[in-house]
TrEMBL record:
Binds 1 FMN per subunit. It comes from the Bacteria. The keyword Hydrolase does not apply. Residues 6-221 form the DNA/pantothenate metabolism flavoprotein C-terminal domain. The gene is coaBC. Keywords: Decarboxylase, Flavoprotein, FMN, Ligase, Lyase, Magnesium, Metal-binding, Multifunctional enzyme. The keyword Ligase applies. It catalyses: (R)-4'-phosphopantothenate + L-cysteine + CTP = N-[(R)-4-phosphopantothenoyl]-L-cysteine + CMP + diphosphate + H(+); N-[(R)-4-phosphopantothenoyl]-L-cysteine + H(+) = (R)-4'-phosphopantetheine + CO2. Its EC number is 4.1.1.36, 6.3.2.5. Catalyzes two sequential steps in the biosynthesis of coenzyme A. In the first step cysteine is conjugated to 4'-phosphopantothenate to form 4-phosphopantothenoylcysteine. In the second step the latter compound is decarboxylated to form 4'-phosphopantotheine. Catalyzes two steps in the biosynthesis of coenzyme A. In the first step cysteine is conjugated to 4'-phosphopantothenate to form 4-phosphopantothenoylcysteine, in the latter compound is decarboxylated to form 4'-phosphopantotheine. Its cofactor is FMN; Mg(2+). The chain holds residues 186 to 409 of 409 of the full protein. This is Coenzyme A biosynthesis bifunctional protein CoaBC. In the C-terminal section; belongs to the PPC synthetase family. Pathway: Cofactor biosynthesis; coenzyme A biosynthesis; CoA from (R)-pantothenate: step 3/5; Cofactor biosynthesis; coenzyme A biosynthesis; CoA from (R)-pantothenate: step 2/5.
Length: 224
């Protein structure tokens, strides 16, 4: 967009994938590159917003002009998101947050000689950052979630999106299909945006930057 329709707005974007440590050298992670979140941060900055980018292990550089806050784990992202969200107009949770983390983090490297041929990891649920922020949001604040689904059936995917939106209490949910070759780490994206009334308010295909602008069009319209 050529216009500065987000001038004076404070926008928080989370991006990347959290890593949950097992020991000093190993972690549980995911394939998020951070590209869609970075594109949102870049597009919001271009439209005049003051952007805080909470980044977990980005595979591409953060855009210029954002307030970059680097985190690693889901718990660190939760703290950074809570802090940055105070007074923000928009919070966009594009990061892939680990649903679980190891119950115990080993002080030293886990050794196979001590574990034998099989080993069991015990995991504990991470807090749902998006649901927490949505529950605590200030009047007028817009909270936007993402849902990366591998479900191939369109109707089933929309159904998953609608129930996720309701469960998390977000204002908007961006659905995108991911698989071994789609979504993560690619330059393009194919998304559907649902609003809290469960209506489809946007369908967009294209570069992650063009998709980011289309998502921000919906957000900007709802801020006014
Ligand atoms: O439940 P699911 O992981 O599919 O939800 C995805 C959305 O929820 C994304 O916006 C993601 O950033 C957010 N999320 C979160 N905290 C978690 C898990 C996901 O904020 N622990």
């Amino acid at each position: 967009a050529a216009q500065l329709d987000l001038a004076g707005r404070r926008v928080v974007v989370t991006a990347g994938g959290t890593r949950e440590p097992l020991d000093p050298v190993r972690f549980l992670g995911n394939r998020s590159s951070g590209r869609q979140g970075i594109a949102l941060a870049e597009a919001a900055t271009a439209r005049g917003a003051e952007v805080v980018l909470i980044a977990a292990h980005l595979e591409v550089p953060a855009p210029a002009g954002v307030d970059l806050r680097e985190v690693s784990t889901a718990l660190q992202m939760q703290d950074a998101a809570a802090l940055a969200s105070e007074g923000a107009d928009v919070v966009i949770m594009a990061a892939a947050v680990a649903d679980y983390r190891p119950v115990e983090v080993s002080e030293g490297k886990i050794k196979k000689d001590e574990r034998g041929d099989t080993m069991t990891l015990e995991l504990v649920r991470n807090p749902d950052i998006l649901a927490g922020l949505a529950a605590a949001k200030a009047p007028g604040q817009l909270v936007v979630g993402f849902a990366a689904e591998t479900e191939p059936d369109r109707a089933a995917q929309l159904e998953l999106g609608r129930s996720k939106l309701a469960r998390k209490g977000a204002d908007l949910l961006v659905l995108n299909r991911v698989g071994w070759s789609e979504g993560f780490a690619t330059e393009r994206n194919d998304i559907t945006v649902l609003d809290a009334g469960a209506d489809i308010v946007l369908e967009a295909v294209g570069s992650k930057l063009s998709v980011a602008h289309r998502i921000l069009d919906v957000i900007a319209e709802r801020l006014h």
